Amino acid sequence: MPWDLVIGQDRLTEALGRAVAQERIAGAYLFYGPDGVGKRAAALAFAQALQCEQRGRGGPKDAACGRCLACTKVGRGLHPDLHVYLPQPNDARLDDVTERLQRLYRNPYEVVDFQRRPSLQDAGKTSSKQVIYSADGIRAIMHDLHYVPGEGRYTVGILLDADRMRVEAANAFLKMLEEPGEQTVLVLTATRTDQMLPTILSRCQRLRFDPLPAEAIEQALAAREQVAPDRAAFVARMADGSYAQALALTESEELAERRQLALDFLRKAYGLDPMTLPLQIEQIGKLGREPVKQLFSLMLGWVRDLVLYRVAGENAPLVNVDQAEAIRSFVTRLPDARLEAMTGLIEEAADLIEGNVHTALVLTVLAQALSAAMRGQDRTRLFAPLAEPAVTA
Ligand SMILES: [Zn+2]
Fold this sequence. Notes:
alpha/beta, Rossmann fold, 3 domains, five-stranded parallel sheet, 6% strand
């Protein structure tokens, strides 16, 4: 496993591998970047490389061997000199925390934090509770990490979402950074660094994790999750560079249906068929606000593909790779379609839904406007600004 645990991010894992090979290990690292791009996976792989008994002693110099006792313990979350922490609500149960950490070890790309997933049984809701590192929590962590390693080569502490510290906790943490143990290595992960104390940032070696290329996500979905190639390609392009998001999309049965619905709506909008269009609008209206927003983002995906296909033809890097035929036929049949205007209209519709405007009304007006744009007419707004106050139903 070693660095293979991490999807993509070769430049970063190579840099970490070099540091390990030369035993030039900083006292603290900050891995930062968007969710789901591999910060946690890299932190665990790094911890394993640090602890590996065979590294440089018969095994590789710059990576964990993946087979020795220390590697096995790290892989299962049982190494006594590796500690992983997450910010918590103040009523978090110990068994819940333990279960989250176990899942993290099994798959570091799974969403396990309390903020994005307050209940492990019930995905898709965000927490209203405060999820932070308390000052007391930080002191307990300092206590854990204060000891010299018992059996490993380092004492390693991984603090996930380290940007979730209030001032008091951050100041306590700063003390630990100022007086690190000689064999202690801290790895912080964070989505954003603008909320963190500059004094903390300056004491960490910082590595920025970028969104993953769609190809890397596609390959990993096929190899790790046995997702069928067509679906992997589509999901990878919908995932905004996040493997965690790709995993969530893979599990969603609805996604494929909604994508079809988005295409259907575009087709029916073109024809403005008085029989079928109102029925479909009624059907979509029943879905609820979040699914409708997703529907708009899927429509934008279709339109983006039309733009790409118009420019690059058969070689276009399409989002809906498995639907190239539908896209080709659309582009050929509607040579005058104002694709840029269509994008603007769909975005405006999404804003209106966000602003609580009645879904059926938005869809009706959107269908008319899209129909005009597909026919090459100059329609760039759903509602003229003056009419807006009148339409909030
Ligand atoms: Zn090993």
